[in-house]
Amino acid sequence: MFSLTPRFSRISHVVVVLAIACLVTVLAGMIFVAARNNNDELPAHTLTSADPATKARIAYRFGQLPLSFEANKGQTDQAVKFLSHGPGYDLFLTANEAVLSLRRPQAQKSTQPEIREALRLKMIGANAVPRIEGRDELPGKVNYFAGNNPQKWRRNVPTYRKVHYADVYPGIDVVYYGNQRELEYDFLIAPGANPKLIKFSVEGAERIRLDQKGNLLLVLKGGEVRLNKPFIYQLAGDGSRSEVKGSYQINSNEVRFNVRGADSGKPLVIDPVLS
Hints:
By secondary structure, the chain is an alpha+beta fold. The chain is built from three helices and 18 strands.
């Protein structure tokens, strides 16, 4: 099982900060320009003295930016295949596990060290060596310059919009993608494949429960992580979608999907969203 090692911690706090700082600076400029173009009356000093509505609009637009997934080229634990960074979390994808390293918000003037919690979603009974590849490569690259030894530096690490896992279960693929606020992972189920095979364990949550809307709530010390009620649908030959009823089914710390009324002769998609 992949663990958050001291080596990873040093990279997160020293190297990634440098790379992300540059990226965020560029993105912030892009978002501000977009906001400025939509409101020609905004003064030149809006970025530093924006009213709450403008700040909220800029934050919203940042949240809609797509996630980028880095291929692991030695910048973190070798068990990790791809990694991503979002507001308040880092995501690590291994062969059969998604690990969220969550950063609990601290007071602005707090001298206490940053508090992290790890949440693990592990596929049960899944293929231990699925075919994994990044898709929709992005133009941006990531560079890591850790320490004074150039041999340990990582340059031009490619980034992707999606990560595709093939044959996680017989006839079932998984695709990870999303934006800065939400992570989506679609289960792509081929005709004749059995969606009942899909099952994952949750580690790191103090409690797991369903709310009245059917969302799966994972209760942590610092708050809650929500898995929205899955959107389940089937694809017709003309590309149209027909929604299928379904829900989460919890057994202790294990979760599976209860799919009702699906046509086993058609492709099926289960689309949960993690917020």
